[in-house]
# Entry
Amino acid sequence: MKFLLVDDSKTMRNIQKKVLSNFPGAEFAEAGDGIEALSVIAATPGGFDLIMVDWNMPNMDGITLVKKIREKDAKTLLVMATTEAEKARVLDAIRAGVNNYVVKPFTPEALTEKINATLAKAKAA
Amino acid sequence: MSSTATSNAITPDLIIPFMNAVTQVFQKMVGVPATVQKPYLKTQTASTYDVCGIIGLSGQVAGSVVVSFAEAAAVNLVESFSGTRFKVSDPDFADAIGELANMIAGGAKQHLGGVASISTPSVVIGKGYAIAGMSDIPCVVIPCTSPRGDFAVEICIKRHKAA
# Structure
């Protein structure tokens, strides 16, 4: 399973990587902002199965990145992982096209559960 | 036509969300329990401790939040958070401090009322730095203790209310 982890904090990317390593065949690419993420996506043949996206990042934020991805790609699973927990922000993200939303801080179990739910929903669709 | 009124008082409803956010972040992501102590008004300009993660807030709630760690506590807590023991000079150390500050400020923001945005974090490391907040509002310090060292959250924010 190919993951792209997009977060301006390397620490947060490492934490996510550690948790998501438990998924079968997990492979990772990383990006520190939306612009870098678009470059990584463009340079990755076959794309990614699931992209984790932070909201607040320099250069290009996560919500803009989600909209840019969804302009061309309706299939890749997108999970927003952010401190932005207000209902309006969650709705904005859903309208932009995320498949699920994880609020920081999260426990490893909570992140795993969100990813499992995202994969199960996609499989059922 | 609308106007805004500004409240310069730091009231419990502006402080309690930060106390709760500290507890949540340390419980869920650092794996170390943090205990918040009684807040007090900050009277000195220097930061409480030597390692500071700084987040700006703008919008209907505006100002700054500084998460300030004693150096030894910062090294220990970053180790618990990231799983790696970094030197203070390592860029990944500053990254981890910034992310802790980001999660505390972000976690509190949703309970402050009103629409606000938070900045990406800045990190300052050094003894006796003065971090200037807004001059027209008081700053409150929330002292925090943990088994791996002490830290403090300095809040210097005000609320703009639509009138």
Notes: The radius of gyration of chain B is 15 Å.
